[in-house]
Amino acid sequence: MRLFDRSNDLHILNEAFTESASGNGQLVIIVGGPGAGKTQLLHEFLDTPDRLGARILQGTACPTEQNRPMSLLRKLLGSDGVETAPSVTVPPTEVRRGAFTPSEELRARTAPGEPEPGAAETLLRLADGERPLVIAVDDAHLMDRASLRAVVHLLHRSRFRRILVVCTTSGQPDAARSAAYTELIRRPHRRARLGPLSERAVGELIAAQTGSPRPAGVVRAFHRATAGNPLLVHALLDDSARFGREMDRPVTGSSYRQAVLSLVHRGEPRHVRVIRTLAALSAPVSVTALSAAASVAAPPAPASGTAPFAPASLAVVAELADTPPAGAEEAVEALNSVGLLDGHVLRHPTAATAVLDDMAPADRAELHGRIAGLLYRCGAPAREVARHLRAADRVPSPWGASVLRAAADQALAADDVESCGGYLRLVLRDCSDERERNALSAALARAEWRTNPAAAGTHLEPLRRAALEGALSTRDTAGVLRHMLWQGDTELAAEAVATLVSGHSPEDAQILAEVEFVRQWFYGVALPTRGTWATGLDPRRHVPTCRNGGLTAQVAMLVGGVATDDCAAAVAQALQGHQLDHLNLELVAMALLAIAHADRPALAADACGTLLECAAERRATTWQALLGSVRAEIALLRGDMTTAAQGARRALDSLHEQSWGVLAGLPLSTAIFAHTAMGAYGDAEELLARDVPEPMFRTVFGIQYLRARGHHYLATDRPFAALNDFETCSRLMRQGNSSLQKGIPWRSDLALANLRIGRPGTARKWAEEQLRLPGGHSSRARAMGLRMLAATSKPHRRATLLRETIDLLKTCGDQHTLAQAYADLSAAHYELGEYARARLVARQAAREAKACSVESPVDAHLLEDPATQSEASGAKGGPALLSDAECRVAGLAALGYTNREISGRLHVTISTVEQHLTRVYRKLNVASRSELPSKMLEHRIPKLSDRWATTHSPAG
User: Fold this and answer.
1) How much is the pTM?
2) Tens digits of per-residue pLDDT, 794-822?
3) Half-sphere exposure of 467 (CA within 13 A, CB side)
């Protein structure tokens, strides 16, 4: 095996062997900490071809054999291939006859009553043979005393013999104090001290194992994680090997954990206790807190030099590890030298985990409990104390519960939901007071709501009765009501608010009024009855003006009045200074949607993006899911179908179905709308196949879901199914918050469905009703009503209405509906015979459709260059194109209109129509009216397609 950073040490060994082979006995001591590669260096030296002519005896001393005399010597002789005979007492005369093998001779000479130097005589006899003798002892500081005396006696007699003795020993303090080490270093010797690998050597080792050099950052990360300890470096490489050439960082696994534990258990018992204590502390803040408190009574540290530990913190660790301070300091230095510690912290979190997992559960819990008590007495931060209480799984009386509650609040403020929940569950487990248990359950639900509303619901459902009876705080009651709304229990939530508000202070009443405001305007349910207003719950009077930076009041003005630029800007400004928290997520979502529906989708998208970044930084899954759905809906309002579909699907998949509650209708409807618009009907069908909660249809989210499904039915030629869904929307909207109707154009949906089934009169009635709504509704809703009215009007009137529609759609930024309106206008111009204008508008429709990632709503022939058409016609040798007037008459005649109907549509006399047709018949060589469509196609005369005739034909 190739060695790295060990060339000097190997040179010392080779030089010593050369000296010994020439008759000058040598002793080499290799010193290095655990994992430094002493054994590897020794084997590399012994396996060198130059050693083939030598007689090699090698053995490893073991701490369990220190009380067994001559145990090491027997290993050395056994390594030479000599069978070890049973120990017997042999008369000296038999020994002198040479009747035994060297191993048996050793046993005879070291039988009870014989002196140990006889063993050395055996080794000397082997050294006097024809081959040089190399004796290699690994972990020599652990030799039994009898073997040590034999080796020392041998060294006394080896000065002019061909003997090389190589001993490896640990550089740790316990090894330095051993009798073997003390005896050996008193003899003349050479020393090879093995330090950690340099960063360069680690890089070479990694390159050798992976087959190519790694970037400096990767090498630096390996060196930092191991401090150059070869055992740890090799273990990390074993764990990271699965990445091969793609390895870009050290990856810890089972090999690294085993290497850590190997280094830990090679040390003294007090070293094990110290590193377990440090692993339990696990972070600098624990020791720092203990040190800060203990240093009050400690002497000041020296001005020069920086010790790994301050004296006070060392004393605390010593106390926790049941070790004298000097022993703790020695242990820390030893653990730093082997690469496990960096100062007083374990170098890698996996190392701390491995050390703690190696402990018995009861011992580990007891250690954490002692640390928690000591930290509490030292005045450490609540979160630091709570971390150890949680690990100890105990709540000490009387201070444990208050510390855990304070730590839970701090953890939630730091967005550590998992720790917050763990602290609260621990307190809740041992709490017996019902009121306190309710408060703990509500706090636990607030924390879990951020990542999993379904899990939060398990804590909130049992609190319903307490909330309705007024047994909870207003904050906790609002949390329960919010959960009820999320699950669609809107009626009970309204009754609860109406009942509770009268008995609360004005500040608490404002909190409940905010819940009612969200119920009415976000969920879109019916307004309270007159009896409810009598209780004092009128959101128009109780909308908070100071909570949330005035956001609620600003949103109320935007959704309840006339949407103006100033009003939308005020809401956006309030959002910028708004902090997301457990009570106002729905309010924030409602504010963003209100801005978007107020013809400011770009402003809403920017604000939503900023809030989403904040939610992602705070790892709040629920916030990300809902805000992601809002951003997708804003993209839909802007006509960006690809972004809408992808964003809605991503948001939908970020929460479990149970966690979405009735709000599942928001991303579902957005995704269905977008997929349908793009022609991805299979994707829309897959979403429609999902189960949705029945209470969803009592909220605005269910209405939007039905609208999306209805438009999908229209796109897939199921107009009567669409009409049924739109009529259901009509009934639900009339039962809900009527003020929301101006933002949801369900009347236009009914008009479109009636047009598709051939009821233009009914369609016109619904379009006119949409346009009669009081002011304040969005430009988009009015534009959709105008478009439906245009579809039921005559060509000249239709073009005027569509131009107004296009202006409104440009204002609100809806590119998809704008493309459809352009297509309708192109059709109107075509029907009026204004072909050049029709082509121009058709191209604009195609451009808008392309920007939306949807299919062009106009026929391809309208997008062709008229010159190309002329060339094609001329190439066929046909007659010249018809005049514009003749094209107008021929196009309508080809679509089946009578002469009288053509006269009425084009506002010319019947005689003029007949004259135009006569010229058309002659130019196109038409014998009868029935041949006209085929002749126009043959000569590429522009006309309305059959699809346009059914889709865009006006009512009479």
Assistant:
1) 0.71
2) 888 998 999 899 989 988 899 999 999 99
3) 28
